Amino acid sequence: MLLQPTSSRHFEDFRHVEPSILTKSVLPVGSASAAAASSSKAPYFERRSLNTVIMRAGTSKGLFIKATDLPASRSAWQHILPSIMGSPDPFGRQLNGLGGGTSTTSKICVVSQSTAPQVADVDYLFIQCPIEGEKLDFTGNCGNMLSGVGPFAFEEGLIPPSVLAPLAAFAKTEGSAREEKIALTLRCLNNNQLIRSTFLIRNGKPVEFGDVVIDGVAGTGSPIQLDFLDPAGSMCSSLCPTGKPVDLLRVPGEDLPIEVSCVDAANPFVFVRLSDIDDTLRGDESASILERHSPRVELIRQSAAVIMGLAPDLATAAKTKGTPKICLVADPLPGSDAHVLSRSFSMGRPHPALQLSGGVCLAAACSIPGAIPNQILLNRQKMMPERLKFAHACGAIEATADVEMDSRSEVGVVVRSTSLFRTARRVASAEAYYLSPTQ
């Protein structure tokens, strides 16, 4: 039997059907059901576009968007941004969008000149786009994506003229071919945190090539120094939200409590001994092996969210996987020059490295007398090193912490700032497309 070509009228029938309907069932062309579908009030979807820049920032990659290119109402972003990233995707690949199918490649920064010029030069909002789900997460911060905010803002003309004036004067006298440092104060709108970003510029563009190596990133790049100013209490009330360096956490379904250290510096983190998850783990296991423990690790994270005051109950904590984050810590492997070994989780899965905010928070935790990371650190040496080194799944990350002893603090210390170095690279400028319903 010969198959007859489908008429254009039949394609018109499908133009008005919700795309998700087409993935659930196939309606016989010309049937009563198909006719009913075409005559329903389902919206017509029209292709629209949004200007974006794709950047590799630290050990993450994502979209950088000027705030003026988005609708004023964040509720409108809920359809636009997941569609661009390719979410929700039950297959976990984000094949239908720009996302990379991992938590570290499904991130967005919305950037603008600061609305509080007396406080900061640039404002930015970090958004974690889920992969299987579609609800955007506006909680917390991403230190890796943060490293791209300053260079993006500079190249997109979002820097206040008062900041650029000295650079212009320098270029006139010294020549534009010379490299010059620029320091910007960034304000994270997720938690009002302030970060100083210092990087090099040359010929009116951020310098991207240099000799700085980041474990987990191929090649080398130009240094971007990030100073987190007064990082404690980014989302909670203080450096240690429970008022104690160590808590005995009750986890549903478990007879015995587990020791945790709840710390909030740059981002809220829960630190747990790796051996308390499984005493056979060393820290050099593959992500697939570590992922076998994901359900229990996630339940610990949810339980900690409640005692940290970040969620009223476990059900609410389960809906926001990005806050708090959780990191398993242990003694470094034999032969390592690191001070602490870390295996962190992101959005319920093992992280391929260590979040930059994780490096900040871990540095702070190492400075808190009695906290689990502090105990591990002092197992190997008697004094706090000037520069801390944390081993992770694909290498190590270094951080410094400016800490003062303060008897008035609940935990005896005050963290003034923490500093790390990252690199970033502009990968592409893109006109990203999404489908928008119209009547």
TrEMBL record:
One of its GO terms (molecular function) is isomerase activity. Keywords: Isomerase. It comes from the Eukaryota. The keyword tRNA-binding does not apply. Belongs to the PrpF family. This is Methylitaconate delta2-delta3-isomerase. It comes from Pseudozyma hubeiensis (strain SY62).
